[in-house]
Task: structure prediction
Amino acid sequence: MPDISTQIAGIKLETCVFNASGPNDVTLGELETVAKSVSSAITMKSCTLKPRKGNPEPRYHDLPEGSINSMGLPNLGYKEYIRLASILKSKYNKPIVASISGLALEDNIIIFKAFNESKADLIEFNPGSPNTIGKPTMGYDFEYLDRSLNEVTKICKKPVGIKLPPYFDFVHFEEVAKIIKKHKVAYISSINSIGNALVIDPVKEQVAIKPKGGFCGLGGKYIKYTTLANVRKFHELLPNVPIVGCGGIYSGIDVFELVLAGATAVQLGTIFMQEGPSCFKRIQDELRGYMKSKGYKSLGDFRGKLKTLD
Ligand code: RRO
Result:
């Protein structure tokens, strides 16, 4: 069978498929479900300084081909994720990805320092949530992005990845790539949900979820092509930075396409919400099957080798 193992910043992953930060990864029970599945790592919910209840419900809604959410960073606070990382590591011995989304730079500094003494293997800095009421998507503020990456990469003794929001303009890709080059960024996870979508129920003549007047982050199949474009562009601009593709992956062929575009691994979000933990095995098996049909033995045989028509 083809080998779909990979590595990010020296951390070995048995397969290139694991869970995204966000869906079903807030509590120990949820994280243990990920741990017991064949997800090759355990990614935890983005955390803040203090525990947060998040936005008012309803705040998640399935769509025929995806999902919307405006969870508003519900999490148990960073101290609890340091404790959970230790429990998960000793019980399951899988790579652990912590996600940090402090509400201010000072908060991120405290949290990153504290995670130096944790069992997390990779630390994902998340400045890309579109759903924090009263805050813009920080990943679109390039001055803030530069300043915070500078601070957190200086403090953090573990590999720091960055979870980027989607970008839509080549000028923005270039600016972000320039910022990432300046700092010690171990990997990129791309993309967060597409911010400020709006879903309307035409019968009730109302929006689908409560927070922010219905504006929300869009995920699932609707965003796969934006994910592919973001992964491709960042791979072109930063060929030595591993990229974890995230957004709209439902099948092994989706993973294959992401790796062709340049991804080193992928994270599953909406499909994990909708199908549950069996999605990890199904998608890994589908990827192996498709690679076998093409005669590929490992991801390196085709990573980044997307052909263009010119
Ligand atoms: O919790 C959320 O509402 C959330 C976060 Br932190 C994020 O990064 N992306 C998203 O779609 N939702």
In short: The two ends are 34 Å apart (CA to CA). The first strand starts at residue 6 and ends at 8. The mean pLDDT is 98. The CA atoms of residues 169 and 230 lie 10 Å apart.
